[in-house]
Amino acid sequence: MIGEKNYYLNIFQVDVPALDKLIGEALSTGGGYADLYFENTTYGSLLLRDGAVTSGGNHIDFGVGVRVLSGEKTGYAYSESTSWEDMLSSARAAAQIACGPTDVSPYGTRNPSRGEPNPHADRYPILQPWRGTPMSTFLPFLQKLEADVRSRDSRIVKVMVNLAFQVSDILMYNSQKELKWDTRPMGSVSLSVVFRQGEVTENKSTSRSFRCGAEMLSEKLAKEMAEDVVKGIDDRFAAKRPKGGRMPVVMGAGASGILLHEAMGHAFEADFNRKGTSIFADKMGKQICPKGIQIIDDGTLEGNRGSLNFDDEGIPGQKTYMVEDGVLTSYLHDRISAAHYGVKPTGNGRRESFRYAPLPRMRSTYMESGGAKAQDLISEVSKGIFVDEFSNGQVQIGEGDFTFYVKSGYLIENGRLTQPVKDINIIGNGPEALSDIRGVADDLSIDPGAWTCGKEQSVPVSCGIPTVLIGQLTVGGE
Amino acid sequence: MEKALLTPQEIALARHCLEYARSQGADAVRITLTKSLLNLVGVLNGEVDKTSHALDRSLQLQLFAKGRFGSFSSNRLDKEGLEAFIREALDTVGMLEADSFRSLPAPERLAKDAVTGQELGLYDPACETLTAEARREMALASCYYHSEKSSSRSEATQGVWGIRPPVSETNVFSLPRLIAEEGEYSDSVFDSLTLDSQGLEARHTETSFEIGYESTVEDADGRHYSSYWWDAAPRLEDLQLKGCAQKAYERARDQRNPQSVPSGKYTLILDSECASKVVTPVLSALGGYSLQQKNSFLTGSLGKQLFPQGLTILDVPRTKGDTGCRLFDSEGVATREMPVIENGVVKTYFLNTYISRKMEMEPTIEDATRVKVMPFGGCRTQEEVLQKVKDGILVTGFNGGNSNPATGNFSYGIEGFVIKDGKRLHPVREMLITGNFLTLWNHLEVAADDARPCLSKLVPTLAFSDVDFSA
Asked: Which of B44, B69, B132 sits opposite A275 (nearest CB)?
């Protein structure tokens, strides 16, 4: 949601002439570019545990970050107050990176995104504001969700529901005299359930997270989450660890998109390529996976956890094709890397808060649908594994090696899903896995969960993928 | 007493907030005031790439009112703003459901010896006099890449910190070629004061000095290999600046030419750098929240021999000058040295006031502070461990993976080396270990005595027999 300019200037008790003075101070030692990032974030949380909402709270985070660029070098400092003296002190600290005049390296004109980004989009309208709505309004949702979950399975011994929301007012100004502002909401509900069957305990969890207001706390959402968390629990109890080894892997639609995020997306972030550490550092313009595959990083999906009206450098949110028809066509850029590569920034300059300088980061990363049917991809496998629920993943940027923890899936035997499996890892190499994609189904799904990327700083992201068959990956088992 | 960060005005403000919350209807209050200062210099390929200066303050409030409880925080530390924040916070607490288990700890459990914050000797006044130039020189001290500027470091600085140019006989720019070298030096001061309405005033102040390097090398086939090395210490004089980048480079270089190894059962030797990976889940499973939510594979384990006879894991939170030590936990409860596992028997759960009341057990401490795995199996060093086990796989790092807290099952991606006759043979690639923590620990062969003091947990090189490796 975007408000009026003066709303933001008033929050931070600044005006444009003062911002210009600060920028002047930041550039006083010779830096080539400077920007200011003001943030006022309100957090709220409620926790239902042991049948009652007995814990909750509010948190305020307020401050301004000052960044100075001297070539590709960064000086950064921040203040938790916007008093003139404190801001001035931060500007002087950030200015220390420069020790003489430097040229501004303007980024190029080549636009890796399709079309011009819309600088006036409102990608997260708020119907019921989180701020100003009494927290007691949210209690019935948590209680209803818990009751719904408990009514669905007699093996449930514990239910925990956590509601977390935040609203951030952001004001950005830079030495190119660009003034941008935004208000970013985020609501997240996570549900964790412990089941007990005889002497065996199992847990399942699910989450939903969107950039929207409190209107997200609907009966529909509660029903959907309750259904989701009990779905497949019989298979979870029956699941075993399979025998490990190299085998074909069918990645289920939706949450398997974490594969793209970890194994490919990070290696496409331009800072790793600028420094030469990424496995994709010399692959621009080359065929890196079969023809027909598109891989996208998108900041324009309405209400999506990774979407932005503007990134944290004031660049309009946009949709960036990283891979088109199997060819690597763009990295993900912030202003520094865009200048380095001579392209326009792609709106991927993101930061955790005013305490951090921005870095190239993903937003919502997904692969477009292909032409196959999911069932047909499974039918092609005589002995392999189907995976559909992940908890996390990790990649080594230099080598491209990745590992994902699979919470649930199934063996594929003679083209059919058979024995449920759990608690295993799949491991592979990003470029090798990309080039070994054997089929892409027509069922792209963006996972609605509360994914957070932790590259140096934590930022909200989302991921998605259609059902995909990969020829060979290593599966960890007994 | 040395200089610290929190000012008398800020401390007075915290005390005022405590009294104000009481005056507005809180039955009990706990306040934690924290302030930290961080200075960081980042280096990329021999040149300063970034600098950062950060000063943080936060006031956290825990309010107990009419049988209800809420937790709040703000970094806007003006008196009027905080008073309004406290009034709103109490309104929020009022709409929560009552929870009879919430209370402050019994007064006799509170720390009484954390008065100045510097009783543990974790504050080094060297942080007060460091200049930007000194920080820059330390960041550049061990890197291979040399710019004109970095090679002009002063003799005085070399003398003070023992900095020497990196070894010149190693040509890191021939194959395997060093293609990127990133480093960071940072120093920080952390100062906190915990107050409660029973009269608790417990302070903790510490400094930390850190150096870290990450190197990426490229082999003749264009494959990249990355690794890191780091060190940290509460006192600057103990920071090992020298050799940090060299070790990162060597660790990256040694990963070249990895080979696949057949799946099967092998002896797992865990390098002390990453051995806490198998200790942390055990501590989490002994944590009150996991136990109370029945989401722990160690439910009902207290007093039982579930680990091998002879294995002892201690919590040693009060060692002077030792990284991570604390005199009190987040409730202000005094820490004490105690066994977590003694001769294989589970000796304690980690129960704070709230969870202990819910579980109808005696409270202990909120969490382990400074865990120490005691020697087991008769080896002191990793070299002795390798000689003892002869064959196996030495794991030097993890790549992803996870564990199931309810069952204790785990699966982790690993990197490391095949060990044959006590020697490193070659690196391995795309391998996983899977198993169950209780089963793993009951196959413990050796715990050496080589834990790095900079790590938060003192876990030495460990060796376990019959571990499932998949490749």
From this structure: B44
